Amino acid sequence: MSLDLLKIKGGNPLKGNLKASGAKNAITKMLVASLISDKKSTLRNVPNIGDVEITVNLCKEIGMEVKWDKEEKVIEVITPEIKSSYIPQRFSGANRIPILLIGALLGRTTHDIIVPTVGGDMLGKRPVDFHVNALKLLGANVEYREMKREGAYFASAHHGLHGSVINLPYPSVGATENAMLGAVRAKGTTVIRNAAMEPEIIDIILFMQKMGVHITIDSDRTIRIEETTEFFEADHTVISDRNEIASYALAAISTKGDVFIEGARHDHMISFLNQLQGIGGRFEVKDNGIRFFYEKLIGNLHIETNVHPGFMTDWQQPFCVLLTQAKGTSVIHETVYENRFGYTQILNEMGADIELFKHCLGNKECRFELMNHHHSAIVKGPTPLHAKNISIPDLRAGFAYVMAALLAPDTSTISNVHYLDRGYDSLESKLTSLGADISRVSLKSKKAALAK
Predict the structure, then answer these.
(1) Out of 4, 69, 112, 121, which one is annotated catalytic?
(2) Residue range 5-21+240-451, CATH number
(3) Is 235 in the active site?
(4) N or C: which terminal CB in the chain sees fewer CB atoms within 10 Å?
């Protein structure tokens, strides 16, 4: 875990060119998906981020052999045999990957698969319920057991897996992925209805098809998978990370800058670009990427997060910072996660005017209505932001704070940088190349210097 700090002196418009990194939410899942086969997989456009490092180390525990060229951003993996089906406790809560190992391993081992998780619901009660119910429909036995210092999910399929019709109550990304992985070696046909259809899911499906999986997609959020018994070597280039693209696009416009992002795909960003136009943000779509630039910010926007093709929940935190710089009153209604506005307290302390509400401030069907969660926000602007010492609570809030620091004229210090390292490849070097005044300070180096 990084103990580094970021020091950011704001006030500079971001200008220049960037190349988008590979998608965190695709590559990590592809590494797990490769476990269903004993053949080699080559993955390209792999970002050098913490979540990939964690996933690689996790899969090595299972028996994966890895060659990772970080300079070329290429990783070769093969898992000839499953050496262990117990996930060490140190990986519990590290990210949401461990629970996916159940689906990936059920068809490759007759041993119990054990996935520890601190407190039982670190991965979120609702999403885990969706995972468990889907895997049970495939014939797996999955149960949660309390232990002395931790809880764990125990899963097995001693009598094999069988195809089934899985109706997801909500198009959960993780539950869709776990169901797909488990269905690959299940006898017969599996139909997953109300499945997630994010670009990352489609990219994983394309990778699995290259591996030899018989998988099709219907237009009504339905995925069909036939039992697969023969696998092949696969070579796949990971799509660009639309969260990273949105982050730098919003940072560019909020600082009144002009940034071209190579690899940004128009078809993956439609709902984002619509909201950007709604606030006066400008963009220019080119063959190899998208240019984002400031012209004016007009405010009075209404955003409701949703599953794809709706507005991503991971976009709302940095977009909220942009709204603080727009004239007027804007509304954000979060319908995907119940507790995603905690970061606004720090923004208010920096000078923002954001008020939270437990009511649904929107028209979309919302699972959190009358559940007493602060899941709507009203943002008034423009408000000047001032520097602050900030501790990051999670990845997406972390970039929102970086954006806020880029807007504040004095120097902000940001700790818990390891959250940013999990999802943003070369964050400070990319921002520096765009003209940001940002530097990383290693606490280890400071302690070593004091010890001399």
Answers:
(1) 121
(2) 3.65.10.10
(3) no
(4) C
